[in-house]
Amino acid sequence: MDELTGPVLIVGAGLIGTSIGLALAQRGIATYVRDADDTTARIAASRGAGSTNRSVVDPELVVVAVPPVALASQIAAALAEFPEATVTDVGSVKAQLLEELRLSGMRLDRYVGSHPMAGSERSGPLAARADLFEGRAWAVVARADCDPEAVRAQQALVLACGAVAVPMAPEEHDRAVALISHLPHVAAALVAQQLADAPQSHLALSGSGVRDVTRIAAGDPLLWEQILLGNAEALRGMLEQLRGALDALISSLAEGDGAALRRYLALGAAGAAAIPGKHGGVTVSTETVVVAVPDTPGALANLFGAVSGAGVNIEDVRIDHDTGRPAGHVELVVASELVEALMATLAGAGWHVER
Amino acid sequence: MDELTGPVLIVGAGLIGTSIGLALAQRGIATYVRDADDTTARIAASRGAGSTNRSVVDPELVVVAVPPVALASQIAAALAEFPEATVTDVGSVKAQLLEELRLSGMRLDRYVGSHPMAGSERSGPLAARADLFEGRAWAVVARADCDPEAVRAQQALVLACGAVAVPMAPEEHDRAVALISHLPHVAAALVAQQLADAPQSHLALSGSGVRDVTRIAAGDPLLWEQILLGNAEALRGMLEQLRGALDALISSLAEGDGAALRRYLALGAAGAAAIPGKHGGVTVSTETVVVAVPDTPGALANLFGAVSGAGVNIEDVRIDHDTGRPAGHVELVVASELVEALMATLAGAGWHVER
Fold it and tell me: How buried is B337 (Cβ within 10 angstroms: 0-12 exposed, 13-18 middle, 19+ buried)?
C-alpha cells in the first residue's frame, strides 16, 4: 500500500483531530491544524499536532474532524479549497452525511468517509494521544464513485495511525455503529436517568455493576445528541427491537414465567460472550489471577516487580472499583499457559494468590 | 457493639458463604459449613472456611447463603434445628421471602435478614475471598418483631467481615436493589441480547463502551432468574418507567427533537455522576494521569516502581481494555493534590505522561 507523503491538513483540533496530527507528525509527515476556535488550534499545535499556518500548499489529504453538524459544510469547503486533495472525515455516522453532500451537487470522487473506533469520555486536544488509534479498527467507507487514488490516500492515513482498515458500505457502517455504540449509549443513559433523583441511601448500595453499565452515559450530551440524530433511522429500528424485548421481559416478570426470563438472560450472556476480546480478531486464552494487595504506596510496585521477575506479560489488570478498603484485590489477566508459573512465583514471594 | 464469639454455621458454601467462613475463621471464630453438595462443602472446608462436621453444638449464628429459591425452607429449617441461635441470610431480595416465612406460621424473632453488597461474575467456593466484604455496604434488614439480641448478633457478623452495616426496611431494601442492581442487569442483558446474532463484521467495531455496558450480562442466568422473579414487583415498576423513558426517546428521535434528546442525555450524565465514588460515602477528589507503557514484561513493574518512588498511592488503575497494540496506556487515578508531584517524577524518569 502507498504511504502518505503529506502535507496533511486537519480541520478540527479536538481529541480525534489532534491525535491524528500527533500520530502523523511522529512519522515525519508535515501536518497543519485548523479549528473554529483559535485557542484550541494553538493548544493542538503546542502539543506537536501540526502548524497553525493558514497557507497550506497542496495538501495530499484533508482530514475533517469537526462535530457532526458541521461535517457536511466543512467537507464541501475542503473539496472546494483544495481541488487536488483527498478529503476524509472521522464522523460517527455516514449515510445521512452522504445525502447532505450529494444535495450540494458537488463531485464527491475525492471524498472518502471514515470512522476510527477510538475515543474517550474526555475530549479536546489535551486528551489527545499519538497512539490513540494503534491496533484499533478504523472503518473505511469507500463508495463505487470514489477515485481509487483517494481511497488509497485514506487507507494510507489509517496505516500511518497504526490502525486496522475495515472496509464498509455507508449503510452497513451506520447499522453496525447503531448496534455496538449508539444502542449501548442510549441504554446506559436510560439506566443512569433513573438514578438521577434516587435517594442517597439507595445509591449507597451501588457496586461495580451499575458503575460499568452507566459509565458511558457521562459522555457529552451535545455531541451525542448530534450522533443519535444523525443515525436516527438505523438506531430507531434497534431501539424498537429493544422495546419489544423489554415488553416481553416485563410480561414474563408479571406472569412469573421463569423459563422465559431465563431464556432472555441466557441470550444476554451469549451476546456478551460474542464481543471480540482485547487482541482484535485473535482470541488469546487468558486466565485471571487474584492477588491481595495492601492499599499503601509501593504495594503495586512490589507486586508488578514480582510479576516481572516471573517474566510474565500482563494482558489486563483490574483493581477493585468499589468502596474503600484497607486492602484491595488486583486481578491480573495473563495468558493461560503462564498462570502456574506466575502463581508459584508470587506465592513464593509471600503474596496471597488465588485463581 | 458486641463481638461474635461463635460458633457460626454457614449453610451454603458458594462464593458468599465461603467468603464469610474465611473472614470469620481468620478472626479465630469457630465456623462450620454445610452444602447440599458434599464436594462443594469439602472444597470450602479445604480452603479454611470451616468444619464439615455435621454435629454443630449451640451455634450463636446460622448464616443461610443458598440460592434464592431455597432460602425460605433453609431459614425455617435452621430456626427449627437451633432453637437458641440467631438466623440470618444473604439473599438479594427480602419482602417476598418474609412473606413466605410468615406463611409458615413460625416465630421469626430470631431471624434477621441481610444482604452484603459484594459479589463477582465468578461463583462457587473457589472464587471466595476472606476480604470480599471489606469496606462494602451490607444491608441489615431488621424488623420491629426482631429480638434485639438477634439484631446485635447479625450486626456483629457484618463487623467481623469488615463491612459497613446499612439498616433498611425490607420494602426499602428491595426498591433500592431493584434500582442499583436488578435494573442495570436487565438493561445489560437486553443490549447484549441484540449482539447475540450480530454479524462478526459489525462486532469487530466494538470498543470499551459496549464491553462495559454488557459485562454483567455474563452472570448466571439461573441465579438471576430467581433474583428477578423474587423482586418482580419493585422491578416491574422500574422497568415500566424505563420503558416510558425509552418511548419518549424513540419519539424524540422520530421527530428530530434535538433539545428533548439532549435533555435525556444530560439527565443520564447527571445520574452517572450521582453514583458514590470508590471511597464509600466520602468523595476523594482524584485526577487521572495517563502514561504510555510498552506491552512487554517488566514495563508495569518499572512504572509502579517509579510511582512508588514518588510516594503516591494509586486509587485506581485502568489498562486499555481494547484491541491489542504494541504499546498501551495506563490510566492512574490519584488524589488531585498529588498529581503534579507524580507527573514530575514520572516525566523525570523518562515516562510519557499526560493528564
Answer: exposed
